């Protein structure tokens, strides 16, 4: 499946935010969106999800304009993982994950045995079955984020759109999410993820799209696109990019302090 943004201008009736956006998302590939606060990451996500009408251009899924997709069918294909802290779900974890099956149910039907089984499998996949009977709002930020990912997986989508899935998480939970993203990619899921950490793009061996000055300024393989000069230009900081260790060729960012 292919999710394709073609020559699009994105934004609001009174404000163009991003111009000439062309981006292709493939299943089994992770694409990280980098850009400073206010650059237009959320605007891009809202547009891809079909919540914000385009000012110009097209976004298509499997060759068909996303506006022409039936919303239920679209939700089969594209799932959204918002920042967990914005969701006041007063339900058990199992019910929150089961809600992910909604797109697969007909209007008057309730979840059946198969839906419950899929919800169980998603909890297992994320190794959070032990949270099943807990109330969502009483979980830590990291636990909530894992549950929200499980809920999106229960949709059995082809694409997962993740809005800064590691923000507000401790170091350990950030790495758990990154490891999970890498496993999901191997399950033929296309992932679009906003992140504030260039290291996450390196860890995910992701493609990156760098949003800067109202456009996608650079895009391509993270190892080629994320350079010391690019990070200086977008974040106005000095960073050394090094190789992780003798055993690993993964790149890492080393901030240079004043
Ligand atoms: P990011 O997610 O990268 O922080 P956003 O996409 O939220 O950035 O915002 C990009 C720009 O669009 C900002 O200048 C912001 O003020 C503006 N913006 C966001 N929402 C609206 C809106 N509803 N109407 C007009 N401008 C908006």
List keywords for this structure.
single chain; about 260 residues; alpha/beta; 4-stranded antiparallel beta sheet; 9 helices; binds adenosine-5'-diphosphate
Name of the level-1 CATH class: Alpha Beta
Order of helices and strands: EEEHEEHEHHHEHEHEEHHEE
- Side by side, the strands of the main sheet go 6-7-8-3-9-10
- Which percent bin holds the helix content? 25-40%
**Over the alpha carbons, how many angstroms does the gyration radius reach?**
19 Å
Q: Classify the fold: give the CATH topology.
A: Rossmann fold
CATH superfamily, please?
P-loop containing nucleotide triphosphate hydrolases
Overall pLDDT confidence: 91
Write down the overall geometry.
Answer: globular
Based on DSSP secondary structure assignment, what is the total number of beta strands? 12
Walk me through the structure.
By secondary structure, the chain is an alpha/beta fold. It has a single domain (2-225), classed as P-loop containing nucleotide triphosphate hydrolases (Rossmann fold, 3-Layer(aba) Sandwich), CATH 3.40.50. It is built from 9 helices and 12 strands. The chain has helices at residues 41-48, 71-77, 93-99, 113-125, 141-154, 171-186, 198-203, 222-225, 228-235; strands spanning 2-12, 15-26, 30-34, 56-61, 64-65, 78-81, 159-162, 190-194, 207-212, 215-221, 239-243, 251-255. The strands form 3 sheets. The chain has a 6-stranded mixed β-sheet with strand order 6-7-8-3-9-10. A 4-stranded antiparallel β-sheet has the order 2-1-4-5, covered by helices on one side. A two-stranded antiparallel sheet has the order 11-12. A hairpin with a 2-residue loop joins strand 4 (56-61) and strand 5 (64-65). Helix 3 runs parallel beside helix 5 (141-154). The chain is globular. The mean pLDDT is 91. Adenosine-5'-diphosphate (ADP) is lined by residues 12, 15, 17, 35, 37-43.
């Amino acid at each position: 499946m292919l999710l394709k943004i073609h020559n699009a201008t994105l934004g609001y009736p009174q404000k163009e935010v991003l111009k000439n956006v062309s981006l292709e998302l493939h299943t089994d590939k992770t694409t990280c969106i980098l850009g400073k606060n206010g650059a237009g990451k959320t605007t891009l996500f809202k547009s891809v999800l079909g919540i914000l009408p385009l000012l110009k251009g097209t976004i298509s899924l499997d060759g068909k304009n996303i506006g022409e997709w039936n919303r239920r069918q679209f939700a089969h294909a594209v799932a959204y993982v918002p920042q967990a802290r914005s969701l006041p779900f007063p339900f058990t974890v199992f019910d929150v994950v089961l809600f992910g099956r909604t797109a697969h149910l007909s209007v008057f039907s309730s979840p059946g045995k198969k839906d419950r089984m899929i919800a169980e499998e998603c909890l297992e996949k994320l190794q959070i079955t032990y949270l099943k009977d807990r109330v969502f709002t009483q979980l830590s930020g990291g636990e909530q984020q894992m549950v929200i990912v499980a809920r999106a997986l229960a949709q059995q989508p082809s694409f997962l759109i993740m809005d800064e899935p590691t923000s507000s998480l401790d170091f350990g939970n950030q790495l758990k999410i990154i490891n999970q993203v890498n496993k999901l990619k191997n399950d033929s899921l296309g992932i679009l993820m906003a992140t504030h950490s260039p290291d996450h793009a390196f860890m995910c061996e992701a493609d990156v799209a760098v949003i800067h000055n109202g456009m996608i300024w650079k895009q391509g393989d993270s190892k080629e696109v994320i350079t010391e000069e690019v990070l200086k230009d977008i974040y106005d900081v000095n960073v050394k990019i090094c190789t992780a260790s003798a055993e690993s060729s993964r790149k890492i960012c080393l901030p240079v302090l004043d």
